[in-house]
């Protein structure tokens, strides 16, 4: 990279990895193993050579279907294990030893066995629940019949005793008459027993009454404990009922109503002796079923444990096989149908590793012919690939969220590692808050191994992913907080004593008349005596506003310098002479000069008005500066800079479109023949020509000129608006500082002044929650978003095109956490 560009340091992140388009010709017998080894390597992005075919027309559609079916069975096993409360074993096994055909058979057998066990278990459980309900019916209904019989016996005895006392000559005759009448008019009553859900019992009773026109007798007794319903398997409160009826027609109506209300019916004998026998029999069957169900559950649990021990191993195997066949479907068959042809992108550094994988696959599959590896020449733009680690990944993601870098253009991610947390800290400068952020992020960093293997919530996962960004932000916040000398808005004399003192011992005039300087200047940061004085806000506002302009101009200059590195790297001299140079002249003639004035004013202690200087530099550049003169020859320098700024605008606008037109004409008239470019040169130069029309396309001069006009206007206006945009650093810093002061003085100090313990405790709690909620959460998010905007808009628009696409290699490591 450095040799090609001639100006750029050999940094891994500064430019994306050099890529190459490769072609593999793989024999059919070693194709599966070859793709498997390449998946382990994870450095080749396959191109789909069968994009015109539907998934069902591809060669390995049947194998993918098989893998999908096995994945379905594994999902079924996982659901069953979760229901049973088992977790899958995390120990990894030698998955390569598993044969896919054997695994398919085994999974089928296990699924059939588990389904049969579940069906038998459900059947037994339903029978068990029915018997429990039946026992309940026998007990409750038996109590009802027994109490009814006792009542009837007592009534008969009472009637008998009355009759014995009133005996007369006519009594026997009357008894015979009653008996004969009863026998002739006796009606046999039937009854139905069962259970009905308690919430439906009132409606059940009402419908029964209406359907039979009141010709039923219903008795209900609530069951004390909830009962498991045999049909639904849910626990619910139920009532035991007995319905007495007369006639078959009434019986049919009652049966239909029971069915509609989900009332479970059970047979019942009138005879008390039979009832006792039935209760004993049901109790015996319940205990037998309970033993059988427990044994079945034990067998099922053992089976699920066996599955759980190998589940991860099987799941990984199936996922890998499915991804291998998906990849094989992207390969095309050659004419002889004995080889598969693959094309894909790989980093240049991975050439040797890919060739070794191909040789190993050919040897392990006992293939007579090895795979052929060759590099293809193409004008297609390669994918962008940066080798990042756990520290740099989050910063690279911040850049990629705006747009993936074009192939081998300068990557702003390198500078973002420092500039992003620093600009955040300028707005968040408080070393107390910085320490709180640091402690929070250290929790994630210390426990990162444990947390990385867990499922986290959306917000927690996002925070965990950016833990190193937050760590850098907190460290820079501590640094800027020490410069601002703010610890929860309280100043400390950390680096020595203050240079200022009160005019008298009482310090009455400290906030009105001011202080006097009695010692040397405070060595580091803002003197603590400024806080609370009458000149605090004017002083800090002036300091932070000017510092924001200096930082903004510096970062924008860095962006323009990076555009020079891009132009040099891609050998684009037009962009150097007609973009980089005029942009540097324009920006620094105006805002670079303003930055110089700020530094000179700080160094000399001058009282010059910088607003006046900059305004009259445009309105009346030939006027005398008077007391606003900061250095000799300033007036001449301003006129020269103003002329340079005016010249740089047409310099940016006019020459480039005409020179591009001339280059295009020369290429098509054959006046600039050149040797054929090598593959690397082709890839590097291709992206550079994309935006100015391809060789085989018509050159639209009007379109190019308008594009250049828009680009020029955007830069000229952007130079002003972007510089003003950096003033958000001052505004956010001031807001953060003032909020800290409000919470400290109006909450904590106010509660302290009441001399009441309860009010003090409440004040401390309110202060802690306000600090965490507003300053450590909302202000952090606010400063983060503003720093993001400054990088995406003000910095990256100077050089970053961001129209590339990411390198997505075929890698087994990337499919581990994916769910089918």
TrEMBL record:
It is a multi-pass membrane protein. The keyword Plastid does not apply. It is found in: Membrane. The keyword Cytoplasm does not apply. Residues 100-127 form a coiled coil. Essential component of the vacuolar proton pump (V-ATPase), a multimeric enzyme that catalyzes the translocation of protons across the membranes. Required for assembly and activity of the V-ATPase. Belongs to the V-ATPase 116 kDa subunit family. This is V-type proton ATPase subunit a. It comes from Hibiscus sabdariffa (roselle).
